[in-house]
Automatic annotation (TrEMBL):
This is Glutamate 5-kinase. It is an enzyme of class 2 (transferase). Keywords: Amino-acid biosynthesis, ATP-binding, Cytoplasm, Kinase, Nucleotide-binding, Proline biosynthesis, Transferase. It holds the Pfam family AA_kinase. It comes from Candidatus Profftia tarda. It comes from the Bacteria. Catalyzes the transfer of a phosphate group to glutamate to form L-glutamate 5-phosphate.
Amino acid sequence: MAINGKKMNSNKTLVVKLGTSVLTGGSCCLNRSNMVKLVSQFAQQHSAGHRIVIVSSGAIAAGRQDLGYPKLPQIISSKQLLASVGQIVLIKLWKELFSFHGIHIGQMLLTRADLENGESFRNAHDTLYALMKNRIIPIINENDAIATAEIKVGDNDNLSAFVAILAKAHKLLLLTDQDGLLTADPRKHTNAELIQEVKRIDDNLRSIAGNTISVLGTGGMTTKLQAADIACRNGIDVIIAAGSKPDVIKDVINNVSVGTYFHAIKKI
């Protein structure tokens, strides 16, 4: 293992962010079938020697489902309550599904403070690398149950970009319910086309991304573009693709064109 800025070996490190819409299939609860298919893909690449780091949304949706869809006041403590309950449900399901492949997982709950504070950053860094070195797949989420507005990253798209930097990843894959970044919102414009390649993120691209927010998630294409910008500026390629696409993980690992590809900015 190398933690001095170099990649650990010739195999690749891939950080994958799973949006709530991917894990629920657009429904109001976790879709076990979708998660089984994803875990099978992860397991295949893990067995091939690649390092997989997962940033998983879905805790609030899982909590709402587990509690029987309660009517709660629209305040931050309600979301924290749901996240607290749902995180247990979510991680237990991940553990169950990965155990079928003989793979261990480790949970990491982070906040912005963990990623900005020197000592906390080093601790998170060391934990992440210890998990990867020992062939344990990290499952990462924001610590919603206790995070305040001042220390929250705010969404798992941006969190995944910081995790990719922390992991010194080769690529960051943002899986969503869309094929990638499109020229317009496909729900409003049937002629919207996929943007296959982005070499520079500019104001025009930000305008195209708009502010599309899924029903169950906290992000949209805007936050994915923010995440791509952060990762690309730190030398990490980013792909936005559909989580429902067969073999999407293998395609990204093997450099097969899929979704929207954001080229990393080369460091001088």
